[in-house]
Write a structure and sequence with these properties.
mainly alpha, two-stranded antiparallel ribbon, 2 strands, 72% helix, globular
Length: 499
């Protein structure tokens, strides 16, 4: 019975746990709130592990499927399931949530229960996004997830948190409205069904596909975010508390990319091919232009935020070259970016907790006072730059390989990220970590404690294991990617309306 309902448990355990944490009360009971949050986060991760352990690698069909009526009058069902693509994102979500709880253990001292409850509720909603097979259920999870993040940035963010929060909320909400319109249109085209899998068999004209493509694009491109609708992300990262930045970079950005592979490519294959040049062009702008923008940043968080946009450009590029290397490389890049960007934001948080500054100019010579921290941050920086042997290299190499099969010049421009990534990452590390001790504040720094060492060491292990042994990740997604490419290359335009 439990095995048949693992996805529901993974979704509702953290949501209910978050409500329990919220009920613990004021900050005088903060230790209880922290303990319950950690237990719930660990249990949720343990619940998701059997999904991987018992996953059938030889079928592209959805697994661990759950189906119950929800709103029968409109054929809306509580329909869940995962394949080799969504499974890894569910695991990434539950894994990251543990680290966020540990990272905020002593850092957050006010409204502790509310802070931790928001993260737990958001964890359940994000797992719901990756598991939903009903369009309305997907949309409910997609929109509801904005509320906890809105609260996290708005309550525990920096001085300009109100501006950043409203900008984040408006960008993502307005894009999602068009997605809802597209889902309602397909509901009627599919005979009044919200089952996402039935949409894969729809016979849509090219005009219909293009219009729906841009409706989806409005929602998914903002969430990735793609250039030029990326401007909310640096503001949100700068103002968000460390835990908020980690979840934003490690998981929330992946939801936009997930939307492209769950909806756009298989439902709209002809429009996807027709507009591949458009998606590739925007991806290359993100890789090249945003990489250059990252070079001139003086705030560490902003630099890492722009780096995230450039790396997510790699993801969308990989999807729209339409070959296995490109798509698998993009998916690997999504998981790797979750590890690396989350780790870098945690590293900035470690420094900020001691110095209360994110500005690069306020640092220098940190290695002299924090050698263990410096070694770990250097590892994550190298992974961010795509060093072979780290997780950052695997995805980028596969995407470049896939792009090369499509067009040499696309691959050439994509490969510039290895240069720009190394440039802005090493520039930051050189200024912050190396050299002589820059000032008295740096001279008073103490190396990481056991709690900080724990979450950074876990991420370091993940980055290295994925870098030297990516097979467990690739094996899970391979069959599902083959099926995705089969759907994305099947012409579904009715003959009478084909050009």
């Amino acid at each position: 019975m439990l095995t048949q309902n693992l996805l529901s448990i993974a979704i509702w355990l953290p949501i209910i746990g978050g409500l329990v944490v919220l009920a613990t009360g004021g900050d005088d009971r903060a230790p209880v709130a922290r303990l319950i949050s950690l237990v719930v986060a660990v249990l949720t991760f343990l619940v998701t592990l059997p999904l991987y352990q018992h996953f059938n690698l030889h079928t592209s069909a959805m697994q661990y499927v759950e189906m119950r009526e929800w709103i029968p009058q409109f054929n809306v069902n509580y329909h869940l399931g995962v394949d080799g693509i969504s499974l890894l994102l569910v695991l990434l979500t539950s894994f990251t949530s543990i680290l966020v709880v540990i990272a905020g253990w002593q850092v957050i001292q006010e409204k502790v229960a509310q802070y931790l409850a928001a993260f737990l509720v958001m964890e359940g909603l994000m797992i719901g996004v990756f598991s939903a097979l009903d369009a309305i259920l997907f949309y409910v999870f997609w929109e509801a997830m904005l509320i906890p993040m809105f609260i996290i940035i708005g309550m525990w963010g920096g001085p300009n948190r109100v501006y950043a929060t409203i900008k984040f909320f408006l960008y993502t909400l307005l894009g999602s409205v068009l997605m809802l319109v597209a889902l309602l249109y397909m509901y009627f085209k599919a005979g009044k069904s919200f089952d996402i899998q039935t949409y894969y068999a729809l016979k849509l004209t090219l005009t219909e596909q293009v219009l729906i493509f841009f409706a989806f694009f409005a929602a998914f491109a903002v969430k990735v975010p793609m250039w030029p609708v990326h401007t909310w992300l640096p503001d949100a990262h700068v103002e968000a508390p460390t835990g908020g930045s980690v979840v934003l970079a490690a998981i929330m950005l992946k939801m936009g990319a997930y939307g492209f592979i769950r909806f756009t490519l298989p439902i709209l294959p002809d429009a996807s091919h027709e507009l591949a040049w458009f998606m590739i062009a925007l991806s290359l702008v993100a890789i090249v232009y945003i990489g250059l923008v990252a070079l001139v940043q003086e705030d560490m968080k902003k630099l890492i935020a722009y780096s995230s946009i450039a790396h997510m450009g790699f993801v969308t590029l990989g999807f729209f070259v339409f070959n296995a290397q490109g798509v698998e490389g993009a998916l690997i890049q999504m998981i790797s970016h979750g590890f690396v960007s989350g780790a870098l934001f945690l590293c900035v948080g470690v420094l900020y907790d001691r110095m209360h500054s994110r500005m690069i100019k306020d640092y220098g010579g940190v290695v002299n006072r924090m050698p263990v921290f410096a070694a770990l941050m250097m590892l994550f920086a190298m992974a961010n730059a795509g060093l072979p042997g780290t997780s950052g290299f695997v995805g980028e190499f596969l995407v470049i390989l896939g792009a090369f099969q499509a067009n040499f010049w696309i691959a050439f421009l994509a490969a510039t990220t290895l240069i720009f990534g190394a440039a802005y990452t090493l520039w930051m590390v050189k200024r912050v970590i190396f050299g002589k001790v820059a000032n008295d504040h740096v001279a008073e720094l103490n190396d990481i404690n056991g709690r900080e060492g724990l979450f950074l060491a876990i991420l370091a292990a993940a980055v290295l294991v994925m870098g030297v042994w990516p097979a467990p990740f690739l094996d899970v997604m391979h069959t599902s990617v083959d099926e995705l490419l089969r759907q994305a290359t099947t012409t579904k335009i009715p003959l009478l309306t084909a050009r």
